[in-house]
Amino acid sequence: MHIKSHKYAKDGVTILWQPDKCIHSGVCVKGLSAVFDPAKSPWIDMGKAETARIVEQVKYCPSGALSLLNGQD
Ligand code: SF4
Q1: Is 44 helix (H, G, I), strand (E, B) or coil?
Q2: 2, 36, 46, 61: which is deepest, by most CB within 10 A?
Q3: Which residues line ligand 1 (CB under 6 A)?
Q4: Whose CA is closest to atom 4 on ligand 1?
């Protein structure tokens, strides 16, 4: 299977998005819709919330499709 991934960075924090892992639970969209909006492209906008809040939301992702990368982008 082709595994795609995308990175989104802000304030030294990098989110890794792996769409093939997403189970479309909607947890991210319901929890922080300003940042996670599937109707937009790119669908993650790191500028719409404080970094700490985005990190908190990423940790709620049940599938691991959203995760945090350590280190530099
Ligand atoms: S919380 Fe994770 S599994 Fe659920 S829709 Fe968002 S990315 Fe996909």
Answers
A1: strand
A2: 36
A3: 22-28, 61-63, 65-66
A4: 25
Q: Which stretches of the chain are assigned E, i.e. beta strand?
A: 6-10, 13-17, 66-69
Which has the higher per-residue pLDDT, 71 or 41? Answer: 41
Are the beta carbons of 35 and 49 closer than 8 angstroms? yes
CA distance 2 to 14: 22
How is domain 6-68 classified at the CATH fold level? Alpha-Beta Plaits (3.30.70)
Q: What is the pTM of this model?
A: 0.90
Ligand 1 atom at minimum distance from 36 CA: 6
> Is pLDDT of 17 > 50?
yes
> Is 39 within 8 Å of 26 (Cβ atoms)?
no
Distance 2 CA to ligand 1 centre (A): 19
- How close are the terminal C-alpha atoms of the chain, in Å? 25
